[in-house]
Design brief:
Elements: E1 2-7, H1 17-32, E2 36-41, E3 64-67, H2 73-76, H3 80-86, E4 91-97, H4 124-127, H5 144-154, E5 158-167, H6 177-183, E6 186-188
Length: 197
Amino acid sequence: MDALLLIDTDDASYPSDDAMETLGDIVTRTRAVGGVLIFASTKADLADTPDEELSIFVPDEEDLVLRSESPDVFEGIDDLAAGLHDLSVDRIIIAGADATSATPGADANTGKPGAGAGSDATDPAAEAGGDADASASSASTPGAVYASAMAGLVCNFDVVVLSDSTTDPDGKLVTWGDAAADAGAMVKKTADTWLRM
């Protein structure tokens, strides 16, 4: 069974109207079939925000609403992977705002400078053979969606990244899709993604 995991889809984090409209389609399809719909926020300033205001897609009582202190929601939310496995979820479809406060070369899981800080080794664009120029758009710097997608793979889920519904803080589509695919994730357009429920 699939779970649709939407990360940081609050109004301020998810400014792209095109991506919002595209993602709205799969949110509607997930709700129509009674699928597992998860809204996760990695933003500390939204910790006290009511659940129904945490996303532009207005979570309801049937949806799972989570808050993570880490860009990697599997690290930031106790027993998330185990709980999804208990629900028989084996594939996670992931999208949202790939916001990060990290600099290129920072650890993708923590957003903080780590052992690879300043090197191209932890930059997904560099791993995929892309331009790792520090002046490049934040679309190439990993954030919460990338970190959570990679963690989902480690937690033994199949992962589908929705390429036309995952944006950087400027509302541009992220450019790390090739790196995610090289790591084992499927990268698909939203309209081409069929839900398994």
